[in-house]
Amino acid sequence: MSGAIKKVAVIGAGVMGSGIAAHIANAGVPVVLLDIVAPDAPARSAIAEGALARMRSADPSPFMHPRNARLLTTGNLEDDLALIADCDWIIEAVIERLDIKRGLYARLDTVRKAGAVVSSNTSTIPLRDLVAEMPASFRREFMITHFFNPPRFMRLLEVVDGADTRAEASAMVRAFCDHALGKGVVECKDTPGFIGNRIGVYWLQCAVIEAFAQGITVEEADALIGRPAGIPGTGVFGLVDLVGLDLMPDVLASMQATLPADDAYREYYATPQLVRKLIADGYTGRKGKGGFYRMNRSGGERVKEALDLVSGEYRAAATPRPAAVEAAKHGGLRALMDGDERTARYAFTVLGKTLAYAASLLPEIADDVVAVDDAMKLGYGWKKGPFELIDELGADWLAARLEAAGMAVPALLREVGEQSFYRVHEGRLQHRRLQGGYAPVPRGEGVLLLEDIKRAGEPLARNASASLWDLGDGVLCVEFHTKMNAIDPDILQMLRTAVERVAAGHRALVIHNEGSNFSAGVNLGLALFAANTAAWDQIEALVGQGQDTYRALKYAPFPVVGAPSGMALGGGCEVLLHCDAVVAHAETYMGLVEAGVGLIPAWGGSTEMLRRWSVLRGRPGGPMPPVIKTFETLSTATVAKSADLARDHQFLRADDTVVMNRERVLARAKARALALADGYLAPDAAAFRLPGASGQAALDMAVDGFAKSGKATPHDRVVAGALARVLTGGDADLTDSVPEEAVLELERREFMDLVRHPATLARIEHMLETGKPLRN
What do you get for the CA distance between the two ends of the chain, in Å? Predict the structure, then answer.
């Protein structure tokens, strides 16, 4: 779906330009990355070459797979400008100076091919100024494509067309960014900061300045203007640290220079003296020595410290429980912002003014509320956009509160009054148009969202942890909805119900949800409770239930397709291993991580991984190579940090599908399920040739070596020994054919031995308390 874009050039190898180039390479498209000649460097292309070298070693990597780096060709603008002559899209990401950009465009225009699109990544210079001196032929192929950093992970792409931009050129770039790069493309107007930064910078500045003014600590601010409002846990000060304190003054100055004289932003333009001192002293955030937070050494341990906004000194970071946050747990967003208590006043000032500012900017920055909400969700990670938050509060309630506080009330809030910006009408989500009335929230062609399915009807079956939905055309969908989509007995029961329902009159099953993560694995809290009460029979029954359920999926008389995004770990990964096919979002992180909590995969994960490596390797070389590969993967709790990398570890197969745009996963999964349904035959059960005691001895020797070198802890050896017994077949003889059921029985037996071990229980408890593995 990448249209006519087969090769791209990026001019500017800074953090943003190089990140854009890397992500285009993730789409499998060759990229030319150019920058100026490096002054006083032995290599004239040292800037671009250095950028590529840094990206190769970065963590997290801008590349979804190391091999993608091979698609980048580096060079410099003096010697290598001709390399862009066959590029279909040229992206300018150089310093935010109009004279430099205009000079570059004149040079690009001498070498670019006819029809090649040129775009700028600027967010501060109006498009009309950028092309004011360029010929009409250039203006027709020019647009702004504003990526958010880091380009691999941030989904927002703001697009601005000029008055002369050719519609076909813009459509080509938009389609490429949607399908090939996985971006949420938001159409913006040619105004300062577009949508995301216009509102986002105001929000951050308001929060920072008001914290100084109202005596709110950085920890209190982040607790208030964070999760209770559906904003990432970094809050505001944590986000500024992440972005970089040193970038904020430049952004603020640019906004100050271009915004209207009466813009509400100007109230919060100033950079506090303390912040200027931090920047001067090298405290520029996470990339520097720290910022509003820093990590310090104390007693041999790393301790998180927070900046005192009054004294300017660091102190141990607190974990506050602001009264407004406690109120919000029971009373929702209104309770967070209501009342005269100090933390509620701060929350209302920041959120109230930010939401009012967003409402005041339409139609200046966008033609509808959907574009604004999408920009803040995709670019800043808000769970709900400004107008969705206003609906939660009530436009009339917010208007009354603003008026009572002596703040300006946008006309749009008064117009909406007791109505809402969004509504569900006849099963479809609609948004309020600026000219009045409602229209359907648009969905791109080929987009199918489970949230839309859920609005249009009731589930076929439901329990506390999962639901079963009808996607149409004979395809059903199981949705998990526990915390972190952790798998529990109710989810297993719903999967069995789904198998029965599909077999009774449907064609296929998809397993999918729209949570942040597909599944973080088994519910460890339930497992620890059962272990602490010595409910061993209950735990063993759950292991058997999981194995039986996943085998029912694998050997069902119809195709089962997994459709994950985010984390798919432990039992969540095992679900996918038992599917006929997987259609995965590119940012799917898969792994069997049970060793980290002192266990082994026992819902068929060990068996299925052994099967996959055996099929891949075939018979030559004997039984040990598949056993070794499986052992290495599972004993180290390997997690693939992209869907592409998951193929390397056999969590995904070569013919599984990777989709760049998360909103397109479910439609592709449904189509894959229907394609498999015609003439479907369930797979045959596996049988293995396993090395038995000799193979186990070899694996034990390898683990002993790791232990002697300090790479394996005492309990690592215990867990590895249990895994080795499973993968080598226990008492199997090399001449025996070991059926799949026998390996599953070994999984259950070794799992039950491990779950009784005190060191395993300590690992589980530590993981639940800290979210980190215990090395015991």
Answer: 49
